[in-house]
Amino acid sequence: MSGLSGAAAIAGIGATEFSKDSGRSELQLAAEAVRGALADAGLAPSDVDGMVTFAMDANAEIAVARELGVPELRFFSRIPYGGGAACATVQHAAMAVATGIADAVVCYRAFNERSGSRFGRVQAAAVAAATSAGLDNGWHYPVGLSTPAATVAMFARRYLHEFGATSEDFGRVAVAMRRHAATNPKAWFHGRPITLAEHQASRWIVEPLHLLDCCQESDGAVAIVVTSAARARDLAHRPAVITGAAQGSGSDQFTMTSYYRDDLAGLPEMGLVAEQLWRQAGIGPADVRVALLYDHFTPFVLVQLEELGFCGRGEAPGFIADGRIELDGALPVNPHGGQLGEAYIHGMNGIAEAVRQIRGTSVNQVDGVENVVVTAGTGVPTSGLVLAAG
Predict the structure, then answer these.
(1) What confidence score (pLDDT) does residue 144 get?
(2) Of 343, 332, 298, which is closest to residue 317 (Cα–Cα)?
(3) Helix 61-68 and helix 26-41: axis angle, to 10°?
(4) The pLDDT of residue 2
(5) What is the CATH number of the domain that holds 263?
(6) Which residues contact 80 (CB under 8 A, 6 or more apart)?
(7) H helix intervals, 22-166
(8) N or C, which terminus of the chain has less Cβ within 10 Å?
(9) Is 294 among the residues known to form the active site?
């Protein structure tokens, strides 16, 4: 176990409603979510002395602090690589708390990703940026690899070829996530499950990805409060103790599909995160009752199950075939519905659901939860957490 393991905990969670048109600024969304997380923890803005968010977030820490009346900040940090940052925000907060740099750190993510800038569309400016990423994009944009779906489709095609998987295997992930969302009143797709036939009939986005293989676009915000584990035990709720927190970037890492690698059907960066998580937490896959996996595209859920050690390489289609990742299965995945069913808030809503599972307060509560594994965006440098009941 690492020196970080067990030192910090998530003491509060907050969120706005999830919509397709919030009708307010991203700064207002951020402030609402942070205010909710502080109220959930039983803390005041004056208790906050640290903030962590995504490099992509448009809301400056000092602006959020002003809106809330936070008097001063002793620590602030931003994590790059889009959704890969989600769990790393909590990792940075936990490191700050464990080392005494800060006492109460808020992690937040807020955007109007449906009514404002939509990530699923071609971002023409990304190819002209005077950065190394702009240079990289200049090589693959001209051949049509200019959206997340296009790059992931290349990965998905290789996975199908290498392991004999089918589109229906991807569809079983989507069906499970939508089934979970259907019983979650806060999910965008509440009351709207899908069948495998409906998945197969949904239109192509980029073959072999159907529309229902792709996460939704959402407006909303989620915030998380991290304090020391000892302090969290005296606050409003049962703490979710951070027993593992890791980041990872694999060899020849690219963005969304690392197509310079010899092995095009794995996610070695997630394997690196998994090795760190299990070592830090002192547990293994068999000790996990529920998993919150980043489900921006269905193929990456399958590969994460493999990289995390729940099954072997190429075995995920068989692993999930009997409903194992559904609520009554051996390893429920994303009981809230995930980004396919609840909302796409860059993975932060998955962390919030993990906390609810630890507390025993989820609308789709899994029995006997003591440890939860959470992952962040895949196909990019990524991160992960293990949370345990405090």
Answers:
(1) 83
(2) 298
(3) 60
(4) 66
(5) 3.40.47.10
(6) 54, 55, 56, 381
(7) 26-41, 61-68, 86-98, 132-140, 148-163
(8) N
(9) yes
Task: Write down the catalytic residue from 81, 108, 159, 294.
Answer: 294
Structural domain count of the chain: 1
149-195: per-residue pLDDT in tens?
A: 999 999 999 999 999 999 999 999 999 999 999 999 999 999 999 99
141 is catalytic: no
Return the HEC string of 220-272: EEEEEEEEEHHHHCCCCCCCEEEEEEEEECCCCCCCCCCCCCCCCCCCHHHHH
Low-confidence ranges of the chain (pLDDT < 70): 1-2
pLDDT in tens, 232-255: 999 999 999 999 999 999 998 887
Residues 156, 303 contacting (CB under 8 angstroms)? no
pLDDT given at position 259: 81
Q: 195 lies in a domain?
A: no
Least Cα distance to 348 among 137, 79, 99, 152 occurs for 79
3-state SS, 261-291, equals CCCCCCCHHHHHHHHHHHHHHCCCHHHCCEE
Quote the pLDDT of residue 119. Answer: 77
Containing structural domain, residue 22: 8-116+215-389
Is-contact 128 135, C-beta < 8 A?
A: no
pLDDT of residue 325: 98
User: Residue 289 corresponds to which amino acid?
Assistant: R
Q: Is residue 298 part of a domain?
A: yes
From the candidates 81, 141, 159, 344, which is the catalytic residue? 344
Question: The pTM is what?
Answer: 0.96
Domain annotation covers residue 336: yes
CA dihedral 97, 225, 53, 255 (to 10 degrees): 90
Residue 169 forms part of a structural domain: no
